[in-house]
Design a protein that fits this description.
The chain contains 4 helices and 87 strands. By secondary structure, it is mainly β. The radius of gyration is 47 Å and the shape is elongated.
């Protein structure tokens, strides 16, 4: 009993954090069950807090060990998981009559109590083992013990609920299992189990009463007679009480439909309105929701339907008119006013005006029409006149509507026009006089122009000084003797008979000193670029720069020396200009788009007489060139020291932050487009969202107000700007990590989208942004629309059965793909013959999952993966091809998601060649960290090849990461089993357009297939609704080779670790009629004689009787070498029937190498011998190993070797059977492990 006590302690403390796997047990005659079932537990007081039921075992054979795990599932009425923590397994007491040598018990609670473990479920594990006796004997029902269940707080539970006790997997190795026990080859099994129900009548608990809650309970619909039905609305019915709500909904109106009309628990009910035949008026209805068991049944919701008649609406086009005429001339041509009805009612309009010189025709009409406006200028002097046309209809709600009319009557006198209207001459001191300039004097109207010109400056000459009609006068300046400075003059043009005489043109002459520093004048300004270079310039000065410009919008403040900045704006932006004259009074600053600045109308200006800072705030600058001039009064003549700064600000309006987003109403505004929008000038308001690097630029915010649940497709066209992105979220600013959806465009400036998103009622936000470079998107379009229905792929036929054929025959059929959806479907097809075991390789590597057939030429796809952890980029890869493999051609290694990232194929072809793929552009590597590149090679495999073919590869990095920079390794291409290559489809991929069909050729070839029925699945992966379609295919082969397989299709290289001899069972079947398994006299596997064990009536995967043989593993495995990974190998199973007729057979087996990525890998040194069952790796089997295996199963103990060393019965799993097997071997002379 000392060992029993020790074991019980170990079992109670193991418990790892693994989730249980529950399920109903298989139907095996033996069973374990609780009694009574169902059981009733009545709780009247705290004294009733513990309840027990009996666990019994039944068996029709001897059971030497068992392991039973159970789970408690509590029905709280409303399904609240809190109740699971108020019921616990208190204990399990084994029956005193049992005489077990070892037994144990452990429990799990959702919330720890008394030190119990928390495995994520509520339950317990019990198990036992008999060394010398049996726990269960045939036809002898045995009570195993009593389960005690405890309620922690009955007052917090419902007054009525159920507890279900079901079988469970209790980790780490607590399988639900009966083990037949010692001295037997029988495998353990899961006994039949029916779940136990405990009905709890809790008289201390909470009454089970549901309560109806309706959200909302008021609905209003609006529609027009003969219009469309209003959009349905949804009412959420929920249970605000406890228990189960079983509701029924009804209404009292023919025009109202409810769907569904009943339900259980929380669920929606849709209200739909049918307006057929309803006239104008208001209609009401009541929706009643009831449940006889609910405390507040029934509940009501009111529904109002407003049927409205939309009157006519007056619409005018255009709404303003301009007539022009010459005094005493002809009347202008009439103009047409179009009058429209903007709604549905009948429009009866009247037209009137308020001017004698204006006439309308016609003055009335019905429906859409036109009215012509006629002007009569008789008796009107020159000047401007105005009038108003009024269109009215007493029945129109927007009556009256008006259109303005303007009339300009021009006199018939000459009009002086000067081109240009101002002149500027620039000259450096001591240079030749500047070239003359011409002034065109034109008559801009009627009559004859008799002009004369004059000026007021000695240094200015005009020629000629008079003329008739259009003419030219040349302006020349003489600067000899003029000191440096600025000179002004005025040219005056007169004609007493002209309507606008006189006209003047200012003349500016600047005699400049020799060229100075940037900023002195307009020819050499200080250059600033926005938004790239937000500018600040401290401790600058205007002193010594001269007063070049003294006739600007600064007025008296442009009399001192000045400085000029030229500002080039690449994208629209809003900025503040800040000038601090550092105490110098009477200073000013201006902004203009011309240099010199305009004398009257600058874009902005500011002055200050006190010497304090001054500002030109919130200046919106479109793309273009601007100038800033800083100047002073004549006294002081200059600013000795000033600071000048330009800062960006958010523009006024919508979209620049979460407080003022652009609003979109859904679904009312669908389809929605915001064209020609920009983020430039909007500021980088938010830079920490789920967009990552893509939220580093200026951004625009949209607010989506969803009134009815809608599915929307959001797309963005950045119009060529790269590295853009947008995000959809229900928070503003968007969440830094977990957004609803987002999309980015990388180096592509093409349109892109996020998949359709379902939005329930509420408020959502879209933010459009970029990387820090580019800083903004100059022009983009944002679209929101209802998504196009996806493609819906159909297949015809839905399955293929090619019937019974002889081995070696070929044939074909057609599989038709159709598209009944609204979008095109991209598809690719493949064939699955059964599970594969792909290799697992870490770090940078080359691999392929393709298999080869000897004597064929085929395309093989190779994968180059860069799993570098230090951002090293790959710049070269080589693959060496062995004898028997001929390279015909290859593609580059290309990253599919980034086609610009690739390594270039060097063109090598032939047998036993080394092919190189290299960095085509030099410098850094081209395959970035985490990227995967693919190359497709056309290879010929010689007839002589057999089994795995090994390929060596090297990979080189760009030397910018840490060591190592070069990696070498190898991979294998396995030989294909004929049973995994008998089906081909052409074409393997393509597109099916909406409403169209595409045929696929399905070809079968049966060479090498063994007898029997072969099955495969045509797998069609596609972009349609279901994403994948599977078409089953089968074909039955006769007159072919027999089928062979090992009892376990996966074998380890046991000969490296185990003593000789070791044997495995193999099975051969599917013989060609009339022969059967009973006719076989001799069988060899890979040429080695196998021992015939017997004939089985059936075996999984075979047709009819099957021959069982025993194969010595060492001679079978040794020819394959020592694989370092999972590899697939074909083997032969040839024999002779009793009448001396020879036959052939074949099969395949997966070999698991020592360093394989398979989860059951060997991890011991090469030179160490390991025995099955040697759990402590001591080199021999004893009681220590039994303890280790028990620890492994019940406590998750650690052993030096892999867990599969404890697989004593070679069942490919470790459980209570292995404990029985090992103890029977040690103490009871049972069979050696795995024999």
């Amino acid at each position: 009993m000392k060992s029993s006590a020790i074991l019980a302690v170990m079992i109670l403390v193991f418990l790892g954090g693994v989730s249980p796997a529950t399920g109903q047990d298989t139907g095996i005659p033996d069973s374990a069950r609780f009694e009574p079932n169902p059981a009733t537990w009545t709780i009247n007081s705290d004294a009733d807090s513990v309840f027990s039921i009996e666990l019994w075992g039944f068996s029709d054979q001897n059971i030497g060990a068992l392991s039973l795990g159970f789970e408690l599932l509590i029905d709280g009425g409303s399904g609240i998981s809190l109740y699971d923590s108020l019921i616990v397994v208190d204990t399990f007491i084994f029956d005193a009559a049992l005489e077990w040598d070892i037994f144990g018990y452990a429990r799990s609670c959702l919330q720890p109590e008394y030190g119990s473990q928390h495995l994520g479920f509520n339950g317990f594990l019990m198990g036992g083992l008999g060394f010398y006796g049996y726990m269960l004997q045939p036809s002898m029902p045995t009570k195993l013990g009593d389960l005690y269940v405890k309620v922690i707080n009955a007052y917090d539970l419902l007054e009525s609920f159920e507890i279900v006790v079901d079988s469970a997997f209790y980790p780490p190795a607590g399988s639900f299992k009966f083990s037949p026990g010692r001295r037997t080859f029988l495998v353990g099994y899961a006994p039949q189990f029916a779940s136990e129900t405990i009905i709890v009548e809790n008289n201390l608990g909470i009454p089970v009463i549901p309560e109806i809650n309706l959200t909302p309970d008021v609905f209003e619909f609006t529609a027009e007679p003969d219009g469309v039905d209003p959009f349905p609305q949804m009412m959420q019915i929920s249970n605000s009480g406890n228990g189960t709500l079983q509701w029924t909904a009804s209404d009292d109106a023919d025009w109202l439909t409810l769907f569904p009309s009943d339900g259980v628990g929380d669920s929606p009910c849709t209200l739909a309105v049918d307006i057929t035949g309803l006239p104008v008026g208001q209609y009401t209805a009541t929706v009643m929701v009831s449940d006889p068991e609910a405390a507040n049944s029934p509940q009501y919701a009111t529904v109002t339907l407003n049927m409205v008649d939309v009157p006519a609406i007056i619409a005018l086009d255009p709404t303003s008119f301009l007539f022009e005429a010459i005094e005493g001339g002809e009347n202008p041509i009439g103009q047409i006013l179009s009058i429209y009805n903007g709604a549905k009612g009948e429009l009866n309009w009247l037209a009137s005006d308020d001017a004698d010189w204006l006439a309308l025709s016609p003055e009335s009409g019905v429906g859409n029409g036109t009215c012509t406006l006629f002007v009569d200028i008789f008796g009107l002097a020159d000047g401007d006149y105005s009038a108003t046309v009024t269109i009215s209809d007493p029945e129109a709600p927007n009556s009256p509507q008006t259109a303005g009319v303007a009339l300009h009557v021009q006199d018939n006198l000459p009009l002086i026009m000067l081109t240009p209207s101002s002149f500027q001459f620039y000259i450096s001191s001591g240079s030749l006089d500047p070239p003359p300039q011409e002034m065109s004097i034109l008559n801009g109207w009627m009559g004859e122009l008799n002009w004369s010109v004059s000026d007021d400056a000695d240094w200015l000459t005009l020629d000629p000084v008079s003329g008739i009609g259009d003419g030219i006068s040349t302006l020349s300046v003489a600067t000899s003797g003029l000191p440096d400075g600025v000179y002004n003059a005025t040219v005056t043009v007169t004609d007493p008979g002209a309507s606008n005489s006189p006209q003047t043109a200012p003349v500016l002459l600047i005699v400049e000193p020799q060229p100075g520093e940037p900023g002195d004048d307009c020819s050499e300004p200080i250059l600033v670029s926005l938004p790239a270079d937000l500018y600040d310039h401290y401790l600058n000065t205007t002193c010594g720069r001269l007063n070049y410009y003294d006739e600007t919008c600064l007025g008296s403040y442009d009399g001192g020396e000045d400085i000029i900045y030229e500002i080039t704006v690449d994208y629209p932006i809003m900025v503040d200009f800040n000038l601090d004259p550092n105490g110098t009074p009477w200073s000013g600053m201006l902004l203009d788009d011309a240099c010199p600045p305009d004398p009257v109308n600058c874009l902005a200006m500011t002055t200050n007489s006190s010497g304090s800072p001054m500002f030109m705030d919130a200046q919106f600058l479109d793309a273009g060139v601007y100038y800033v001039m800083i100047d002073t009064w004549p006294a002081p003549d200059c600013i000795p020291s000033f600071d000048f700064c330009i800062t960006e600000i958010a523009p006024p309006g919508w979209g620049f932050d979460c407080d003022a987003p652009i609003e979109v109403l859904l679904p009312d505004d669908l389809p929605y487009v915001d064209p020609n929008q920009t983020t430039c000038g909007m500021t980088n308001a938010y830079s920490s969202t789920c967009l990552g690097y893509y939220d580093g630029g200026e951004d625009v915010l949209y607010e989506l107000q969803v009134s009815i649940p809608s599915t929307v497709l959001v797309s963005l066209d950045p119009k060529g700007t790269n590295y853009t992105g947008f995000v959809l979220d229900d928070n503003c600013p968007p969440d830094p990590a977990d957004c609803i959806a987002f999309a980015t465009a990388g180096s592509s400036g093409s349109p892109y989208e996020i998949p359709p998103v379902f939005l329930s009622t509420g408020t959502y936000y879209i933010m459009v942004d970029t990387w820090p470079s580019p800083n903004c998107i100059p022009d983009f379009d944002l679209y929101l629309d209802v998504p196009i229905p996806p493609g819906n792929l159909t297949v015809d036929p839905s399955e293929f059965d090619f019937g019974t054929v002889d081995e070696g025959e070929n044939g074909s059929d057609v599989l038709t793909l159709g598209n009944e959806g609204g979008s095109s479907i991209e598809y690719s097809v493949s064939v699955e013959y059964g599970p594969t075991v792909p290799p697992e390789i870490d770090g940078a590597y080359v691999m392929t999952n393709d298999k080869y057939l000897p004597g064929t030429t085929m395309d093989v796809e190779f994968v180059l993966a860069n799993d570098s952890q230090d951002a090293e980029w790959l710049d070269e890869v080589t693959i060496t091809f062995p004898a028997g493999v001929i390279v015909n051609s290859s593609t580059d290694f290309v990253v599919q998601e980034a086609p610009g990232h690739y390594l270039q194929y060097d063109g090598s072809t032939g047998e036993e060649v080394t092919v190189t793929w290299f960095d085509y552009n030099g410098g850094y590597g081209n395959i970035y960290a985490t990227e995967v590149a693919v190359a497709t090679m056309n290879l010929t495999f010689a007839d002589s090849l057999d089994g795995d073919v090994s390929f060596d590869f090297t990979i080189s990095g760009d030397d910018y990461g840490g060591d190592p920079h070069d990696v070498a390794g190898s991979f294998v291409i396995s030989q294909a089993d004929p049973s995994e290559s008998w089906l081909t489809l052409t074409p393997p991929s393509g597109t099916v357009m909406p409403g169209e069909t595409t045929p696929l050729a399905v070809a079968w070839h049966t060479s090498g297939l063994y007898n029997g029925t072969h099955e495969a699945d045509i797998v069609i992966s596609h972009s349609g609704m279901s994403s994948i379609e599977i078409v089953p295919v089968q074909i039955t082969i006769i007159n072919g080779p027999a089928k062979a397989e090992f009892a376990n299709a996966v074998y380890y290289m046991y000969y490296m670790f185990a003593y000789d001899p070791m044997y495995a069972s193999a099975y051969v079947g599917n013989f060609s009629p009339p022969y059967t398994a009973n006719d076989v006299a001799l069988l060899t596997v890979n040429g080695e004689l196998a021992e015939i064990v017997g004939v089985l009536s059936d075996y999984p995967g075979f047709d009819g009787e099957v021959l069982e043989v025993s194969v010595a593993l060492t001679p079978f495995l040794e020819p394959y070498g020592a694989p370092v990974d999972t590899s697939r190998h074909l083997f032969s199973a040839d024999g002779v029937y009793g009448d001396a007729f020879a036959f052939e057979g074949a099969g395949s087996v997966n070999l698991i190498g020592k360093y394989s990525g398979d989860t059951r890998q060997w991890i011991l040194p090469d030179d160490e011998v390991v025995l099955h069952g040697d759990a402590d790796a001591s080199g021999y089997l004893d009681i220590d190993d039994a303890v280790k295996v028990i620890e492994l199963i019940f406590t998750g103990g650690i052993i030096p070797g892999p867990m599969m060393i404890a697989d004593c019965d070679c069942s490919d799993s470790v459980d209570i059977d292995d404990v029985v097997y090992l103890i029977a071997y040690i103490f009871l002379h049972g069979p050696y492990p795995c024999h």
